[in-house]
Amino acid sequence: MIEFLIKLHPEIAIKSKSVRKRQTLLLERNLKTILLQVDASVEVSNNFDHLTVRCDTTDDAVQQEALRQRLIDRLGCIPGIVYFAEMQSGSFTSLHDIFEQVLAVYAPQLEHKTFSVRVRRSGNHEFTSIEAERYIGGGLNQHVASAKVQLKKPDLVVTLEIRKDRLIMVRKMHQGMGGFPLPSQSDVLSLISGGYDSAVASYLMIRKGLRTHYLFFNLGGAAHEAGVREMAFHIWQKYSLSHKVKFVSVNFAPVVDQILETIDSGLMGVILKRMMMRAASEVAESLGIKAIVTGESIGQVSSQTITNLNVIDRVTEMLILRPLIYQDKQEIIDMCRKIGAEDIAKSMPEYCGVISKKPTVNAVLSEVLANEQKFDFTVLEKAVKAAKVLDIRTVDYQAEQQAHVVTELAQLPVDAVVLDIRSPEETDIKPLTVAGHNVVELPFFRLASQFANLDQSKHYYFYCERGVMSRLQAVVLQDQGFSNVAVYRP
């Protein structure tokens, strides 16, 4: 039996009873939705101030460890969990037997640390909770020479629960994502470009319990859109898998062409952002969403000065959220790395919609409005009306973006090479073997730069867990002239 104790984020714990109950129920539902995809035997129990997750295991130690790791990976990416404790339970015969079991689990963790023992007990026993704490604490202190008992603010608290003839102990603590459960704080529309800033901004909104949908302004064609969908899919799959969200794509190339033809050079960047905000507001309203999210940070580029942001914001009454507004670029990159999106972000090419030799950092609203009078707004209206609104959950929506069919096979030709395009962390947890075929690991974020270096006389079949990335990458490479790619779907 694998068992975890789930603790809610402290901000949930201080809410009123009714709010706390609602948040806990949301978290319980999200846990069931996500973890049942990992293993059908998962059971989630709601105990008001905490939740428990239990899962039956097999006698196969390798399979049990793999299942344990998958559950840990998932629990660490669910909003609303401040930390989760890996539990171990079993029977005992005496107080000394309890001590020996605790010593076996905690001895390595106590080296060179201060600690205390806390026991919660229910049932009839020959000892009290305090007597158990003293006996176990004293024994640990004797057997781990570098450890020291410290009752106030210890480095480690040995937490035990004794229920009748059962001993339950915390085997290991794991850090959670924190924040609020989805979707406790409504919906937002995040402007996503595939880069560092928009990825981190989207993650922070999810962490706050906001169901985050994605809006992409396409400036670079099919390859650009495929890359951005990869980023959006990654963030959704890892951090908000419990809820469906929309991916909206707007072809903004005609809008950029109009700006280049009609707008004064120094104001192009600001007016492009105003056009994006106009479009985003219309898309958000059509989806019933009340706020827009951007990855803008003060002073990062010319359009992100206080003066320019003020002018940009005046184009809409829609609430615009900027969670990164005070963050430095390196802080954003570090956070992007932490959430597992750095490799995708750094592989994304920069698509500059407009380039001004001397972009203004102090736009004047009256000048901006005068310039916009020269703009043909029917171009913007057509772009918004033609927006593609897709469900990010489905594999089928990828097919809507494809001009041709990508071959998918379960039985491979004799000379086929399987290209495992999952991220390194996925391949480490669950390595792929295909009988009779060579498997080459090449993460999807390196395909664009490294696929051409492979032996082009061979035919490559891309593999990923759900098939989404495989189809996307196959389409992009086929568009680039590679005809020797397809998808492996066992």
Report on this structure.
The protein is an alpha/beta fold. It has helices spanning 10-13, 17-35, 61-75, 95-110, 129-143, 196-207, 221-239, 253-262, 268-286, 306-313, 329-338, 342-347, 365-372, 377-385, 396-399, 424-429, 444-450, 468-479; strands at 2-8, 43-46, 50-55, 81-91, 114-122, 148-149, 156-163, 166-175, 187-191, 211-218, 246-251, 291-293, 319-321, 388-391, 408-409, 417-420, 438-441, 460-463, 485-488. The strands form 3 sheets. The chain has an 8-stranded mixed beta sheet with strand order 2-3-1-4-8-7-5-6. Strand 7 (156-163) and strand 8 form a beta hairpin. Helix 6 (196-207) packs parallel to helix 7 (221-239), helix 6 (196-207) packs across helix 11 (329-338) and helix 9 (268-286) packs across helix 14. The longest helix has 19 residues, at 17-35. The relative contact order is 0.09.
Poorly predicted sequence stretches spanning 5 or more consecutive residues: none
Please give the alpha-carbon distance between the first and last residues: 30 Å
DSSP helix fraction: 40-55%
Oligomer: single chain
Judging from the principal axes of the Cα atoms, what is the shape? globular
Count of runs of 4 or more consecutive helical residues? 18
Arrangement of strands in the largest sheet: 2-3-1-4-8-7-5-6
Q: What structural class do you assign from the helix and strand content?
A: alpha/beta
Largest sheet geometry: 8 strands, mixed
Mean pLDDT: 88
Name the beta content range.
Answer: 15-25%
* Rg calculated over all Cα atoms: 27 Å
Task: Tell how many strands the DSSP assignment holds.
Answer: 19
